[in-house]
From TrEMBL:
Record bears the keyword 4Fe-4S: yes
Residue span, HhH-GPD domain: 47-194
Biological source species: Desulfosoma caldarium
Reactions accelerated catalytically: 2'-deoxyribonucleotide-(2'-deoxyribose 5'-phosphate)-2'-deoxyribonucleotide-DNA = a 3'-end 2'-deoxyribonucleotide-(2,3-dehydro-2,3-deoxyribose 5'-phosphate)-DNA + a 5'-end 5'-phospho-2'-deoxyribonucleoside-DNA + H(+)
Family membership: Belongs to the Nth/MutY family.
UniProt cross-references to SMART domains, sorted A to Z: ENDO3c (SM00478), FES (SM00525)
Name of the protein this chain belongs to: Endonuclease III
Length: 221
């Protein structure tokens, strides 16, 4: 059963309050991966799967000195790529994906990272979250990446009932204005890392607890 118009309006109002608090808490929230262009962000985001951004940022400077372009990655040996990215984990799979993706960039996109969701999703190693990170941060497109932190915060706040990231993204996009999506993703991630942690979240001192469905119903962690 769909929510009534009154309930939908109330939820939109609560979302607006949540957004206001997040803006006050994290006015400068941004992508924590280090990059200079769309290619570098593509590489960094592929490497960040099941790995911290901080660890990725220790690897990418050396990687980009060795492989400064899609052409350089496409021409490199698997062993050379693997050796460079070994600290990030799952390095063999990621090395294959990087090389295949860069081959596709060179062969089909003139060595440039495409700026549409459809084209990005064709690249090996790129899922919807990765594509949205690139669209929002490298191309300035309204996009809302949902990682494990953003998903956890959205679920606990009661902004979604879903566990699937794509469905969570859809729910969040329906609640928040499109111009807020990119930074909202970073704010949710930062809040998830600093306050609404997976283990021992700081519920009692959280600035959002008055707006949090989990806290309101007495489900503390």
């Amino acid at each position: 059963m769909k929510d009534s118009p009154k309930a939908q309006a109330s939820e939109q109002e609560r979302a607006a309050h949540i957004l206001k608090v997040l803006h006050a808490l994290y006015p400068d929230a941004r992508c924590s991966l280090s990059y200079e262009d769309a290619f570098q962000l593509l590489v960094a985001t592929i490497l960040s799967a099941q790995c911290t951004d901080a660890r990725v940022n220790t690897v990418t400077p050396f990687f980009f000195r060795l492989f400064p372009s899609p052409q350089a990655v496409a021409q490199a040996s698997d062993e050379a790529i693997e050796a460079c990215i070994q600290p990030v984990g799952l390095f063999r799979v990621k090395a294959r994906n990087l090389k295949k993706a860069c081959h596709m960039l060179v062969a089909e996109y003139g060595g440039k990272v495409p700026g549409t969701l459809k084209d990005l999703l064709r690249l090996p190693g790129v899922g919807r979250k990765t594509a949205n990170v690139i669209l929002g941060n490298a191309f300035g497109v309204a996009a809302l990446p949902v990682d494990t932190h953003a998903a956890r915060v959205a679920q606990r706040l009661g902004l979604t009932r879903h566990k699937d990231p794509d469905k969570i993204e859809k729910d969040l996009c329906a609640l928040f204005p499109s111009e807020s999506w990119v930074q909202l993703s970073h704010q949710l991630i930062q809040h998830g890392r600093q306050v609404c942690r997976s283990q021992r979240p700081l519920c009692a001192s959280c600035a959002l607890n008055a707006l949090c469905e989990t806290y309101r119903h007495g489900r503390f962690f």
